Amino acid sequence: MRIGIDLGGTKIEMIALDSDGISLLRLRIATPRGDYFGILNAVAGLVESAERELGRSGTVGIATPGAISTRTGLVKNSNSTVLNGRPFDKDLSDRLARPIRIENDANCLALSEAVDGAAANANVVFGIIIGTGVGGGLVIGREIVTGRNKIAGEWGHNPLPSPRPGEHPGLACYCGKSGCIETFLSGAGLSRDYHARTGNEATAEQIALAAAAGDAHAEACLDVYRDRLARSLATIVNVVDPDVIVLAGGLSNILRLYDGLPSLVGSFAFSDGIDTGIVRAAHGDSSGVRGAAWLGGAV
To answer: Are residues 61 and 165 in the same domain?
Structure first.
């Protein structure tokens, strides 16, 4: 049995899968705020509750924003900020008396979709999250590629490629740089564009609904967004040339973005055309927790 935990800033979700990827049990609780040991106990408690209910033990994998620093062995860049600077994997391993594995949530998304999702049977898979932020993960042969510095797949913190008039130098990003892809392709970036055109505040979901209803400003915003997305994905194709690119996160649900997207990506890539699959995540919001469960070995 494989147990996956999706450890977010507001909720902790647990899933138990059998060897065929069938869900045996799912549980969800609120994340204890500002309490390191509260989070540690909550995660361990979910694992222990699942094992009692199902009558067997399992491997344990954790998906969370951030990563384990190669320099310190401590958590870095987690939105559950009380985890940062802590040996969470070691503490949880000691508590559960078994090895555990922690990976970035975008890495878990990519693994989930490569094992039994929208990119099943593909060898090279790049999974992206476009929502509150912009993340990415690379999987080759059903194995996550983390890279030397544990930042493989972080395409959101590269500059927007081939900037058009008005796009350079771009806005400041929380990472300390300016003009990052994330500042353009996050939900906030889309909302900012709509506000600049109309003076009105709207969420990404509201903009998508307005475009579907024939709002010309909303349609124009989505066209610009798709162009920026295509330019950004073309750099991934040029460097990694994946078999499939899987889109997840709130903005991945805007179906209009997929219209003509592969050919548009191909027009920016260093090729006479591409046949890269660009698809929505089959498991949707469950991809992260399912990918965490597969961390014990995707077989």
So the answer is: no
